[in-house]
Amino acid sequence: MPDYLISVRNIRHGKFGSEPGKTRFVRLPSNQAMHKPEHMISRSEWVSEVMSAASCGVDAVTGAACGDVLVFVHGYNTELRAVLRRHRLLKKNLAASGFAGTVVSFDWPSNNIALNYLEDRSDARKTSIKLVDDCIRLLTTTQMRGCAINVHLLAHSTGAYVVREAFDDADDRRHIAQHNWTASQVVFISADVSARSMGIDDSKSSSLYRHSVRLTNYHNPYDSVLKLSNIKRVGVAPRAGRIGLPERIPQKAVGIDCGRHFQALKQDPQCDGAWDHSWHFYDRGFAKDLACTLRGDIDRNYVPTRRHNRLGQLELNVDA
């Protein structure tokens, strides 16, 4: 099956670049090393194919086609090859864990130079508008046609910032806000957003909670990329991807501590980037938990790949 992406990178010398550009809908052959402009298809054709791939049955109550689309939003300092590699790993590991839907990626401009953190964050803010206009509204329109397709979001690192800004921006836009749209499961991994901003009283995340059924935040206390002493991050508040969600959160939010699970893992030699920041893509144990989260059939406290620690907090079960 081909890979489906939405790219908002510019095109330079016949290839996708690292600056914001027009929105392009990409259908990439499964054996293609990286996506190029010639793999672009029309918006309507892309939507039709993605929704067809997402459909995995018929709703017993409504009789309508039902299924799942997972939109993957990558983080900063992620070049094209890494985006595609992680996209395909997600597809492979989720399918092996029983996820019958389809995975698409929202590819925003992100440089492969570490010191470009602030520039990439600025680009993330700009392209969050594209995520609203060309992904959220697009999928909202599909929902309005009566399709019983659940739309989920998985955001890694600064991708969590892109998603949060996109939801906030959507509520400020009349042509989107006037429609009743909701993402099903929103999942953050190694989230590069302030932990405090995810609280129940913080306006920065109010739209995110308002327009999602569930938000799951997987955090790893051993994530060195999100440490405060990181030179690229001087002066910023503790991150949700490292210390977890704050104490006061909405009922629909849930935090999963991955520290003990991460310590038990053996580093995959194929990992690109920092292992403690990107291990999720290579770990089938995480994929099993994610697949269960996306299905939503089991209460969050009873997912078999989780357990409660001695403090009563949920953690990924290293023995699963």
The end-to-end span amounts to 29 Å
- Named at the architecture level, the CATH assignment is 3-Layer(aba) Sandwich
Characterize the largest beta sheet: strand count, sense, and whether it forms a barrel: 10 strands, mixed
Sheet/helix structural class = alpha/beta
CATH topology: Rossmann fold
Helical content (DSSP H or I, runs of 4+) = 25-40%
The portion of residues forming beta strands comes to: 25-35%
Full CATH superfamily name:
Alpha/Beta hydrolase fold, catalytic domain
Overall tally of domains:
1
Count of DSSP-assigned helices: 10
Series of H and E elements: EEEHEEHEHEHHEHEHEHHHEE
- Mean pLDDT, as a whole number? 85
Rg computed from alpha carbons, rounded to a whole number of angstroms? 18 Å
- What is the overall silhouette? globular
Uncertain runs:
none
User: For this structure, what is the CATH class?
Assistant: Alpha Beta
The tally of strands reads 12
Features:
single chain, 320 residues, alpha/beta, Rossmann fold, ten-stranded mixed beta sheet, two-stranded antiparallel ribbon, 10 helices
Q: Could you describe the 3D structure shown?
A:
The chain has 320 residues and is of the alpha/beta class. It has a single domain (3-316), classed as Alpha/Beta hydrolase fold, catalytic domain (Rossmann fold), CATH 3.40.50.1820. The protein has ten helices and twelve strands. It has helices at residues 43-54, 80-96, 117-144, 159-171, 174-177, 206-210, 240-243, 259-263, 275-278, 284-295, and strands spanning 3-12, 15-28, 40-41, 55-58, 65-73, 102-107, 148-156, 183-189, 212-219, 253-257, 306-308, 314-316. Strands 1, 2, 3, 4, 5, 6, 7, 8, 9 and 10 form a ten-stranded mixed sheet that branches. It has a two-stranded antiparallel sheet with strand order 11-12. The chain is globular and about 50 Å long. The chain starts with a strand and ends with a strand. The model has no long low-confidence stretch (mean pLDDT 85).
